[in-house]
Design goal:
heterodimer, A: 272 residues, mainly alpha, 13 helices, B: 328 residues, Alpha-Beta Plaits, six-stranded mixed sheet, four-stranded antiparallel sheet, 32% helix
Chain lengths: 272, 328
């Protein structure tokens, strides 16, 4: 299994897919960091609280012109959180690309028992997802941190918030990458898989949640939001969500059940 | 001789399409077996069933009694070249081989060895998308050889190759056989393979037409089709032939064809009658003719087709079309 994961990793990194995804994610993260600071400027000096329990402090220290409250600093560390969508796409692409370029023939010749190949991809995607989360965190620390220091803020204060943000964020990225492989194993047509994935997470899920009361915690994004509370408790959101471990299990269940059904379908499929 | 590959009663139906129908043959160890048949005769489907890529409807396709899936480390036993398109275009040749080697537990030193073997060392770092079809075929061969397998399965490896490429491929296949590998190589052209294969398995419409040695097939092809004579005294010759009741047909004002005649028969006739000859041509059936007769004749016996030469559906081991005429 280690050999298959290593092979999968080589497979992934020798194509443009992970680098393009990581590049776009980094670019967006840069813009988000910029927005965090611009947002503050437009507020006219007082750095608006991020919805945490510390909003009171920003009132009393309105002269401070950079993120300084616990919640503000956490938001800055976790500015790349939305990059989980790219972890999801990474998972989807690592399996659908094989079908698009017919490399799946070679893959199945190496690993004729097809569920083993899917398992290898699940593991590799999980590692890749964690890697992407770490890239996002580092880019936030570098980009956000440099700006913070430039404005007279404390970098060590920012670093202090990493343990509260990073584990939950890495967990969420891993869960989304696994879900991506599950979706990809069900929908091996690359275009269809991407359209369905983005369609669900950008449009359909929001519509469902607004229509069906109580669906929020059951949908993947809700489960992932819950999982993100592994190390930080965003009080206001938590009211509507599962515990972090319940959310984690639900997300894992989505990914693994999809992968299981996908594996069974792949096993019966003729590769012509 | 032990069998490297055994195919028994292999059948594949894609819905209502019967791609392969009750096909049985064996590939002997250490020999090159040509798997021949027209396009669409089920060759690729058969090879993909052997490799576990396509599920069988019924029957078995095994290597020493085991299916591909049941082989321990299959790429160490069986190397396959299926189609020249299954590469990620932005991946470098070397990385493609490394990826296979790592996944299959093959030492990475084999990557350079196999690149050398197929003559791609110079372009190892080039992206496969920039490769010509011939280079892709070579890269497929390198992939197949990575695990140093004792059996090679090559599906139409000559497709898209230029004459030099085909020559290289022949030498390559003969070399692989000389070091003890068993090779099953498919083609829709016997002429492409006749200098390469020891045995032939001929299929048509998903059914076996004939399994035999190339020598046997060549024996059938060697049968004389007749003689052609160009002579300024063609009139005198036709009189002699008419007198002895031998059939002929004119093909040009000074040329006739005598179907079924042999040089051994015609030579003395010409000498005894002192006929001046400008040109004397021995028409032999080529291997390709035999192959075409076998496959087309077989196809023609199915419902809806007009009756043609060859075997009926009940006799898969068909005899070649009898040569017309018959003088000897």
């Amino acid at each position: 299994m280690i050999a298959i994961v290593r092979s999968e990793w080589l497979k992934l990194r020798t194509t443009a897919v992970p680098w393009v995804l990581a590049g776009i994610a980094l670019l967006i993260n840069g813009l988000l960091i910029l927005v965090i600071y611009l947002n503050h400027d437009s507020n006219g000096g007082g750095f608006g609280g991020g919805g945490g329990g510390n909003s009171g402090s920003s009132v009393t220290t309105s002269v401070v012109s950079y993120p300084h409250t616990t919640q503000q600093l956490r938001n800055l560390v976790g500015s790349g959180f939305e990059g989980y969508l790219f972890a999801l796409l990474l998972g989807v692409l690592c399996i659908t690309t094989e079908f698009r370029h017919k490399t799946v023939t070679t893959a199945f010749l190496i690993t004729p028992v097809r569920p083993i190949m899917v398992a290898g991809k699940l593991l590799m995607a999980a590692i890749g997802g964690a890697g992407l989360a770490i890239i996002m965190l580092v880019s936030s620390l570098v980009g956000g941190g440099l700006t913070l220091v430039g404005l007279g803020g404390s970098f060590s204060a920012l670093l202090h918030q990493v343990p509260a943000v990073a584990p939950g964020m890495i967990l969420v990225f891993i869960l989304f990458a696994i879900l991506g492989v599950g979706i990809g194993s069900l929908l091996t047509n690359q275009v269809a898989a991407i359209v369905v994935t983005l369609g669900w997470f950008i449009i359909l899920e929001g519509i469902l949640v607004s229509l069906v009361h109580g669906a929020a915690k059951w949908v993947p994004t809700g489960a992932a939001e819950a999982a993100a509370n592994l190390t930080r408790n965003r009080g206001d959101l938590s009211l509507f969500l599962f515990n972090w471990w319940q959310g984690t299990l639900l997300m894992l269940a989505y990914g693994l059940v999809f992968a299981l059904i996908g594996s069974m379908m792949l096993t019966r499929r003729d590769i012509t | 001789m032990p069998s490297a590959i055994e195919v028994h009663g292999l059948t594949k139906h894609f819905g209502s399409v019967h791609a392969v129908e009750n096909l049985s043959f064996e590939v002997d160890s250490g020999r090159v077996t040509g798997f021949l048949g027209p396009n669409g005769s089920g060759k690729t489907t058969t090879l993909r069933m052997l490799l576990g890529l396509v599920a069988v409807t019924s029957g078995t396709a095994t290597f020493g009694g085991r299916t591909y899936e049941k082989l321990h480390k299959p790429t160490h036993h069986v190397g396959a070249v299926l189609e020249a398109t299954s590469f990620h275009p932005s991946r470098r040749a070397e990385d493609h081989l490394k990826m296979v080697a790592i996944g299959a537990g093959i030492p990475l030193s084999r990557v350079d060895e196999t690149l050398e073997l197929v003559g791609l060392s110079d372009v190892a770092r080039r992206r496969v998308g920039k490769f010509s079809l011939g280079m892709r075929q070579r890269l497929q061969l390198a992939t197949a050889l990575l695990g140093d397998p004792e059996i090679l399965i090559l599906d139409e490896p000559a497709n898209g190759l230029d004459p030099q490429g085909i020559q290289w491929l022949r030498t390559f296949i003969r070399y692989q056989a000389s070091i003890g590998r068993s090779i099953l190589v498919s083609s829709h052209l016997l002429s492409e393979m006749e200098e390469t294969v020891d045995d032939v398995v001929i299929v048509s419409e998903g059914r076996l037409v004939l399994q035999t040695t190339l020598a046997d097939l060549a024996g059938r092809a060697g049968t004389s089709n007749g003689m052609r004579v160009r002579s300024p005294e063609i009139g005198r010759l036709t009189e002699i032939l008419t007198a002895t009741q031998v059939g002929f047909r004119p093909t040009a004002p000074d040329t006739i064809a005598i179907d079924g005649a042999t040089p051994e028969w015609l030579g003395p006739v010409l000498a005894q009658n002192q006929i001046v000859v400008y040109e004397l041509i021995h028409d032999r059936g080529s291997l390709e003719d035999v192959f075409l007769n076998l496959t087309q004749g077989f196809a023609a016996t199915f419902p809806g087709a007009t009756a043609g030469a060859g075997a009926g559906p009940g006799t898969p081991h068909a005899k070649p079309t009898p040569m017309p005429g018959g003088v000897s």
